[in-house]
Design goal:
The complex is a heterodimer. Chain A is of the alpha/beta class. Chain A has 17 helices and 13 strands. Chain B has one domain: Ubiquitin-like (UB roll) (Roll), CATH 3.10.20. The chains are: A alpha/beta, B mainly beta. Chain B: Its main location: cytoplasm.
């Protein structure tokens, strides 16, 4: 059965159950047992609707949510509104973890979690709801488990799938509000378009290095992601957390603020209570929060309004996107929906060696007791202190031009050591994963004099391939 | 005329990793944003200009703010700089 059918079935059963429970409540009132403790009994699995959805709060609920319940912007009506709301967390990573957990803690009735990926050990420094024991487990299931163990009243739906044009509309339509906690432009455009076409507000967060950004799209007359970014960035300017690094507390903060904005947005839907004029709503529709953790600076800026010529949120007569199924998001963005590295292929096969082949080169030189090659590590200097191959010389990729004299001198020294008549000097270039090393080979060919007897190759897959194919004890980061 | 420039979200990597710049421009001339972008290209850019500019425009994925407002709200390339203006270039983040 598809997710949609399951959801319909569940909705049907819930409505049946509600009718029955309403009937029981009515009958109990008739026989005068209303208010007795058994009315407050709940299914601890959280699968049955909580009493909050019936129009009153149970004693347990009052205790549990008491600290927010007494805020005038929340109150009983607000708490019931949260219990009747559903939120979709798109991405169970650094942003999704705190967002989901705060929403569940606050008593949001239904939390959906979407993620196709599994927990990796390198996720744990920022994706704080996953556990060491969950490495290798579905991220969506792992976060759902954390949500359930915090608040068993919350209904959690795990969507352990890759979000794409075929499922995005159904998924987004099944919830009141969506949170973009994803990690790549293709997914961000897809989520935006699905939210616009399904009429759902989108709470968007992002983080990288020391910086984070937060805004609310498609809320009432506010702009959408495409209003701001009609053209996607060239993939070469898009950096992910794996390549750029990130301080865990940054997505922690932004994800928490996403939960905050979501709660305010949900509370804005509460019918005005004449005795309570405390109206609240999201603060970041049409505004963007820019946080820089390095200088501890928060900046809030005004964004352009909804664009009348927007490809997706303009009027149905004007817009060019009517169905997400019709858009090839990977093509549009020049890169698919994965933050994992998709290896560059710039050099031809004969200009590259595999890690195993390079191991043989090293082995031979050990047997010959001399090293007839030069190994250049083009990673940033900082990363060479994490791990490096013996006898490698570090000339960072981004400094190749400015350090060209040093590079020439280095090659020259090795050329001088080489016996006359011997084959050309082999220069091997290595980096973390075998992308920059290819660019470096190309650049070095233009930097070194063409008549020097030098053959420059790179190591396919870089140090990561070395760790996987040659030395299992070599660190992977 | 003194103008403050701020680069963030990774845009600073094109400017020697320095986020905050204060520049002085000849006050007797009028300075549109278009002219400022050219000035930045000629005077501040450390690396390949195509990483920052595409034709006359800032490349897709960089938001431009004038005194904390989207430059679309104040005339974009035609906005005329005032003394003490703060211009911010933010590269959009996608990570999470």
């Amino acid at each position: 059965m598809s997710n949609t059918e399951e959801q319909k079935e569940i909705a049907h059963l819930r409505s049946l159950l509600k009718d029955k429970e309403d009937e029981i409540a009515r009958l109990k009132l008739l026989i005068g047992t209303a208010g007795l403790p058994e009315i407050d009994k709940e299914d601890p699995s959280g699968r049955t609707p909580t009493a909050a959805r019936h129009g009153h709060l149970t004693k347990d609920e009052v205790s549990r949510y008491s600290r927010q319940l007494i805020l005038p912007q929340v109150g009983v009506e607000g708490q019931k509104q949260l219990a009747n709301s559903s939120v979709l967390i798109l991405g169970a990573g650094g942003l999704g973890c705190p967002a989901a957990i705060y929403l569940a803690a606050a008593g949001v009735g239904h939390v959906g979690v979407v993620d196709y990926d599994v927990v990796e050990v390198s996720n744990l420094h920022r994706q704080i709801m996953h556990r060491e024991a969950s490495v290798g487990v579905s991220k969506a299931a792992s976060l759902a488990q954390a949500v359930r163990s915090l608040n068993s009243r919350v209904r959690v739906t795990v969507h352990d799938v890759q979000l794409d044009g075929s499922n995005a509309m159904d998924m987004v339509s099944g919830y009141d509000v969506a949170l973009d906690c994803s990690d790549n432009p293709a997914t961000r455009y897809l989520i935006n378009d699905a939210c616009v076409l399904a009429g759902r507000p989108l709470i968007s967060g992002s983080a990288l290095r020391w910086e984070g950004q937060l805004t609310v799209y498609n809320y009432r007359d506010g702009p959408c992601y495409r209003c701001l970014y009609p053209t996607p960035p060239n993939p070469q300017f898009v950096t992910n957390c794996s390549d750029g690094g990130v301080i865990g507390a940054v997505p922690g903060l932004i994800g928490t603020l996403q939960a905050m904005e979501t709660i305010k947005l949900l509370l804005a839907e509460v019918k005005p209570d004449t005795s309570n004029h405390c109206r609240i709503g999201p603060s970041f529709s049409g505004r963007l929060l820019v946080f820089d953790g390095e200088s501890a600076m928060f900046r809030t800026v005004s964004l352009r309004p909804k664009q009348l010529d927007c490809a997706v949120c303009a009027s149905p007569q004007t817009r060019t996107i009517n169905r997400v199924q019709d858009v090839d998001y990977a093509l549009f963005c020049g890169r698919g929906p994965h933050d994992k590295d998709e290896g560059l292929r710039i050099l031809k096969g004969e200009d590259r060696v595999t890690a195993s082949e390079f191991r043989n080169v090293v082995q031979q030189s050990l047997e010959m007791e001399r090293r007839p090659y030069l190994l250049i590590d083009v990673r940033p200097h900082l990363e060479t202190s994490i791990c490096s191959l013996p006898d490698s010389v570090n000339v960072p990729f981004e400094n190749l031009e400015e350090r060209v004299d040093e590079l020439k001198e280095l090659v020259n020294r090795h050329l001088a050591r080489k016996d006359a008549g011997q084959s050309p000097l082999s220069v091997y270039v290595v980096c973390r994963r075998g992308n920059n090393s290819q660019l470096a080979v190309e650049r070095m060919r233009t930097l070194l004099p063409a008549d020097w007897p030098v053959v420059i190759k790179d190591i396919v897959g870089g140090l990561q391939a070395w760790a996987e194919q040659v030395d299992p004890l070599f660190p992977i980061y | 005329m003194e103008v403050s420039l701020n680069f963030s979200g990774g845009a600073e990597l094109l400017f020697g990793k320095i986020k905050q710049h204060t520049i002085s421009l000849p006050a007797e001339e009028t300075w549109s944003m278009k002219k400022l972008l050219n000035w930045i290209k000629d005077n501040l850019l450390k690396e390949r200009p195509e990483l920052f500019l595409q034709g006359d425009m800032v490349r897709p994925g960089i938001l431009v703010l004038v005194n904390n407002a989207d430059w679309e709200l104040v005339g974009q390339l035609d906005y005329l700089l005032q003394n003490k203006d703060e211009i911010v270039f933010i590269s959009t983040l996608h990570g999470g």
